[in-house]
Amino acid sequence: MCAKLSAQISPGDLSTAHSNLEGMSNCTKCHNIGGQVRNNECLACHTEISQLQKENKGFHSSSDVRSKSCIKCHSEHHGRKFRIVNFNPKTFDHSKTSFQLTGKHAQTDCFKCHTPDLMSDAKYKKNKGTFLGLKATCVSCHQDSHQGSLGNACQNCHEGDSFRPASKFKHNSAKFDLTGAHQRVDCAKCHAVETRNEKRFQKFKGVEFSSCTSCHQDFHKGKFGDKCSSCHVTESFHTIKNLTNFDHAKTNYPLLGKHTNVDCKACHKNGLNTKPKFEKCINCHSDYHQGEFTKNGTQADCAVCHSIDGFNSTSYTIERHIKSNFILTGAHLAIPCQSCHKKTEKWNFKIEKRECTDCHKDIHGGSIPQKLLTGKTCESCHTTEKWKSVTFDHNTTKFLLLGNHQKQSCNKCHVRNEIGNRLIISFKRKTECLECHNDVHAGQFTKNGIELCRSCHQFNNWKPELFDHNKTSFPLDGAHSKVSCNRCHKQVVDEKGKYIKYKFGEVRCALCHS
How far is CA 512 from CA 302, 480, 485, in A? Predict the structure, then answer.
């Protein structure tokens, strides 16, 4: 009778999963007084499902499942062996869960993920038939190669097809936006691979980037600060911007003088990022003097004579010239440099010859015998103070200056002669009197082609003070000694000209006395 009563009350045996609820005293654990089974009674026991619905996760939270009564899918009282969960993994629509299968996940066998080892709770691990208990995070199945440094939202960077590359990652969403050449740099160049917790680890978070020097060596060694972007762009370090405001004074070579007007590329010929030599002017400028100032293989620097204000001006002073092989004295001090250092194809500053005639014309035309020149130079007679101041000692010649000769100016005897296009003063003269004086005797006192002027005359006047008539072929004695000269020696005119005749062919008394 009890069995018949039980059969009338219960429609059948419960499934194995609910077998512990058999008996009339347990009916109200699932049914209300009217016998209806509502979802809240089921969820009161199946708290894992209740929790998923509260979190709006999992299959039971989907719109077409949540609105249904539990008994629509999970009916009871059909016997112990009844499959209360009628689930077919092959036909299950995983998109109704909180984790949609995409990429390689769609090709993965269900039990690669739904395995007790991956269950999040011990109670799920015991139930080998359940598909619950998995978390929807990647790290619940996959090892986190970032070791928690980037959080657990792997889907922000990775897709289901492959973890590498992280195709969804956009560097512009990070704190350091990649621009220019940075876009072509391999990730490992900045994100170094190291070992952390005995595992391979690539550092993506916490990389220092506050300044360019965090990754790049400072070519300028701190001279221009750490704000490289004030001059450079990320496309290339060789591309320089904002040159107009660049302070060259911060470099090892401040721009001064004419250098301030020079185009940057004139010095930085291989790019503005190159460092040209600047120790000497010839590092940039060609040697205008073509090695003229090279000594022992070393080229003297232009700064010895020139300044940055221009090559036309020179700092080479008279004081420095005095220390050279040619000391400037007298009128030379007032001569412009180019008067001696003449420009032909180039300026000639190193003059090997330093004789007077190297610069000055020899107005004497080589007429002065070298034996009269002390040291064979013009300085034997002249000084640099004034050419007309002559210190020549005439007594060193064969013609001593005596009597009235001492009172005469040089050009009385040393006359100017025009030879070719030059006016030359001749100093090389014969010492005979007739070289300067006229022969008033018309050759009467010539012997062997030489005039015998000095037999009668001295240098003080023209009077024949040395003449002695008694030494002639007609000595004067008696009354003859008292007769004036012109009584016998009269003026004649013939083919030789007008002159006083002193010599007679024969001496006879009848020539004067009739």
Answer: 95, 11, 13
